[in-house]
Amino acid sequence: MKQLRVGVHYEPSNIDPHLGAAELALQMTNGVFDTLVNKTTDGEYLPGLAESFQISEDQCSYIFTLRRDVLFHDGTAFTAHAVQASFERARDPASKSQLAGSLLGSYRSCHIINDYCLEILLDKPYALFLDALSQAWLAPMSVKAMQENGPGFMRHPVGTGPFIFDRWEAGNCLVIRRNPAYAWAPPVVKNQEKAHLDEIVFKFIADDKKRSEAFEKNEVDLIFAANPGDAAPLRARQDTDVTVWPIRGVPVCLMLNIKRTPTDSLAVRQALSHAIDRDALVTEVFKGEFTRAYGPVSQFTLGYEPDVETFYPYDPDKAVTLLEQDGWIIQADGRRYKNSVPLEVIFYALPVNFYPEFGDIITRELAPLGITVKIELCSPPAWIQAGMQGLHNMIPQGKYASSSQLLGFVYHSRNSGAGGYGWSKRGPEDYPEIDTLIEQSDTCIDKAGYVPLFNKVQLAVMQAALAVPLHCNANIVAARTTVSGLTFDAIGAYPLFHDTTIQKSEG
User: Fold this and answer.
1) What residue ranges define each of the domains in the chain, with the CATH number in brackets?
2) How far is 488 from 39, CA to CA, in rounded Å?
3) CA-atom Rg of the chain in angstroms
4) pLDDT tens digits along 15-48
5) DSSP state, 291?
6) Surface-to-core class of residue 65, CB atoms within 10 Å of its CB (0-12 exposed, 13-18 middle, 19+ buried)
7) What gap in Å lies between CA 251 and CA 26, rounded to an integer?
8) Which residues does 143 contact at the CB level (< 8 Å), separation at least 6?
């Protein structure tokens, strides 16, 4: 039996609660689902469960022609009715699928033309609609299973993918097994037939060190999100391949709240940008395994603007000059003051993702300049609320995306309110050209249209010093040399197991 054992980080208490346990499970069950369309890393859209699609001139109507040979894992036929029901479920507040619902954007309704043709209507153009449909969060699901399982559906998901959901043992593992009927693989994978693996067992191992230990003890064949400090020793093993897979999108940045003193001052934000040695931070924390970020889009992402690399080189002397010009004068106690108010920044951090280490390093680097850092280590709900409500001066944030288009989600002022993820808290009156550029891109489906616009957005974000880019997201994968064919989707975050195989010795 070709069974692949995968060690994964799964600890709900340390994850964004807005995703929820159901969506976390979906990350491991990506292979259970197929999507209507498929996206490549260079921004092209290829067929999936939809053989073709047509977009109206006003970009508010999408007509999809579906494959006729696809079955769900429960034996029911894949039809337009399943697409309609899946979208309605994603939008239903009762399903608590905030991410899937938000990905639908300006979705209004889905009209069934016939069993294998449907029209989707939008209230207004939504350039990221096809991108959203290429992600498993919006993959069609069995109508029968949704009706029978109700709110518990994501504990027993039924899709059309190359693997069938088998079981989920809380705190232990999640298991998927090969779909023997699979014959509709997408063009983004090589293997166009059923999967090579018989079964994949995802073992939940929250601690980074313990995942590495489980691999070394041969308890798992592959681990995701390996500890950066363990990468070099694992790489030195003759039976192991270690690969750092870049995750595209918005890199982890220190979002600077421009509505809260003292980061409401451009000079202070620029000083912070010059005062933090990002190269040293990435080397110290990630042991050279991750890549330092330069701008609001990672350099592995479609639409990256390389001119951001000219902004804010490490220069403590420049930082001091900017602070003094802004009226922040150092006093006998070694701290800077302006109008008797000390220069203090509040840093909100989770107890994971190396955020505490970031806080310690930044505190150490800013102290000689007379800047005090107050670290608020908190739970995920409190951390999210801090970002949404603007309680912070600094807060780490990163987002997965296949292209620079997601910048609108983070930097448009419409997303800076109490319920949004625009954690620079920029209003429409602040640097209005950012909103103008993003809004111009709202109807740009093709990369030739949106890339030049988001190139300008990246430069505007850096000029306004809305964030201090730290590191590009990545997934360190350690695998036995007997494992081959693992790939990832266009975002780089979610594994594709269509081509994966494992060679195991007898006995």
Assistant:
1) 1-15+162-247+476-507 (3.40.190.10), 34-160 (3.90.76.10), 249-471 (3.10.105.10)
2) 11
3) 24
4) 443 344 444 555 677 899 999 999 999 999 999 9
5) P
6) middle
7) 22
8) 76, 81, 82, 85
